[in-house]
Amino acid sequence: MFGNGRAVNPSSEHKPHDGTMLAMLLDAPNRRLRNARLPIPAPREHEVVIRVTACGVCRTDLHIIDGDLPPHKLPLTLGHEVVGIVVQAGELVGAFEAGERVGVPWLGGTCRHCAFCASGRENLCDTAVFTGYDRDGGYAEYAVADSRYCFRLPDRYDDAHAAPLLCAGLIGYRAYAMAGTAQRIGLYGFGAAAHIIAQVARAQGREVYAFTRPGDTHSQAFALSLGAAWAGDSDAAAPALLDAVIIFAPSGALVPRALAATKKGATVVCAGIHMSDIPAFPYSLLWGERTVRSVANLTRADGEAFFAIAEQVDIKTVPVIFPLRAANEALDALRAGRFDGAAVLVPR
Ligand SMILES: [Zn+2]
Ligand SMILES: [Zn+2]
Q1: Could you say which DSSP state residue 131 is in?
Q2: Ligand 1 geometric centre to CA of 297 (Å)
Q3: What is the distance between the alpha carbons of residues 80 and 78, in angstroms, rounded to a whole number?
Q4: How far apart are CA 133 and CA 137, in angstroms?
Q5: Which ligand has the minimum distance to the alpha carbon of residue 133?
């Protein structure tokens, strides 16, 4: 069952007798995930097989299920915030050995030679492959990943607390980096990414202004508890003009609203992979050298930079644990906004 490869030393207590594993499979858009038994994958040359210990549930997973993002692979195992222990490494894996903990992010591989890859912008590679979208992800007991795109995780985070760092943290951090040296930062949509980035911003002495769905006083209180200077409804005016805004919510209507909340020279960063249409707005909102930009994916350099910060700053993630078999319930809860923080699947 493990195919070619070296250093096979899986912990036998977790290895099923028949070489199969539980995976929660998406057969087609707009379906519930199906509980399936699949062969445990084998690693090719640069790959590691990991025993999944925690996998975050991301809004992008909902966009894939809903067909907002076109299907790339079906059936598909979702999940791109994967934490696990290496049980087998391919012949050419140099960075990790069996028994080590790794994190597997959304960026699962790139061509490594195009103009984007050669200029530090591998996040834009035309042939990049994404975990839990182009290749199977972590909604399973085992997963296989290209070791060259995996990360070591700071020891201070246990598996469930580390999982949300791998997408909400990494892509949130890339969006935050695009906000430059902004002192007053607005965050629209206070979910998994914003709650991580708010803490990084506070640790770096920035002021955070949190905008939530109108009337969502619960999320507003959560933002204030994490050190936000102000929290309020997304249609309310902040008490001060902002130097930058990051929009995590998938609503294009927030773009003109965010622009109206900014100072001259501000940047509005759209951090989501999918957003509803942006309505027409007067040029005066953009005037004054304001910038609107998107952030796509992540680079490995973003990961190195973010985990260096996460090593220093004790980022409080709020994992809400669901058993792997309850992946559909976790997705429902995310869709309904029924929890703060981040849903995390844990195989039992
Ligand atoms: Zn490339
Ligand atoms: Zn994600």
Answers
A1: B
A2: 13
A3: 7
A4: 7
A5: 2
Distances (CA, A) of 324 to 47, 106, 255, 305: 23, 19, 36, 30
Other CB atoms closer than 10 Å to residue 204's CB: what's the count?
Answer: 11
Beta bridge partners of 320: 343
Terminal-to-terminal C-alpha distance of the chain? 21
Any idea what the Cα angle at residue 139 is, between residues 248 and 11, rounded to 5°?
Answer: 130
Q: Which ligand is nearest to the CA of 131?
A: 2
Residue 171 CA to ligand 2 center (angstroms) comes to 8
Could you say which ligand is closest to the alpha carbon of residue 343?
A: 2
172 alpha carbon – ligand 2 mean position (Å): 10
Q: Residues near 212 by Cβ (< 8 Å), separated by ≥ 6? A: 189, 190, 219, 220, 223, 231, 232, 233, 234
CA of 113 to the centre of ligand 1 (A): 5
pLDDT in the model for residue 17: 61
Centre of ligand 2 to C-alpha 164, Å, is: 9
Tokens of 116: 């984007």
Report pLDDT for 197.
96
Mean pLDDT by 10 residues, the chain (348 residues): 41 61 98 97 97 96 96 98 97 94 97 97 97 98 98 97 95 95 96 93 97 94 96 94 96 97 98 94 98 95 96 94 98 90 91
Instruction: Specify whether the CB–CB gap between 348 and 47 falls below 8 A.
Output: no
Read off the DSSP letter of residue 74.
S
> Which ligand has an atom closest to residue 273 CA?
2
Give the number of the ligand closest to the Cα of residue 127: 1
The whole-number pLDDT of residue 191 equals: 87
Residue 136 Cα to ligand 1 middle (Å): 20
**What is the whole-number distance in angstroms between the Cα of residue 115 and the centre of ligand 1?**
7
